[in-house]
Hints:
Blueprint: E1 5-10, H1 16-31, E2 36-41, H2 53-61, H3 78-81, E3 84-87, H4 90-99, E4 107-110, H5 131-153
Parallel strand pairs: 1-2, 1-3, 3-4
Helix pairs in contact: 1-2, 1-5, 2-5
Bound molecules: 4-nitrophenyl phosphate.
Amino acid sequence: MTQPSVLFVCLGNICRSPLAEAALRAEAVAAGIAITIDSAGIGGWHAGSPPDERAQAEALSNGIDIGGYRARQVSQDDFRRFERIFALDQQNLRDLGRIAPRRASAKVGLLMDIVPGREGTAVIDPYFGTQEDFAQTWEDVSLAAKQIVARLMR
Ligand code: 4NP
């Protein structure tokens, strides 16, 4: 059986999707399950860059160092390499639909659709916000990460 694999996609891969990656890595370790986890951006402007300082600070305040993460742009190959691709907001989801190759095996969906009561909502882009907005991002992606692990466990 192949290991479950999950890719998180936001716009820049420096704010929301690295936090989602970190949250799921932490939940997977806590649950003792192996998952292939990565994150990417719709755009490539930040490719090679570490996460936004505020995202790094938010992760650190939750005991996780994401300073070694590096941004990358999503690729067509990702649609074959990952079982699940989660878009952080609706625009990311539309953009993924535009990029997806015809032979895509990945199931692509909106991240918060898996959180009961939060279906159809976005993980709001904190890039032009404050540190508090990053705390909200962490809350959202942590809820989603717990759901992903719960689903994989049953
Ligand atoms: P992210 O946030 O999509 O959560 O990584 C953003 C990062 C960079 C930009 C926009 C959003 N940007 O316009 O450069």
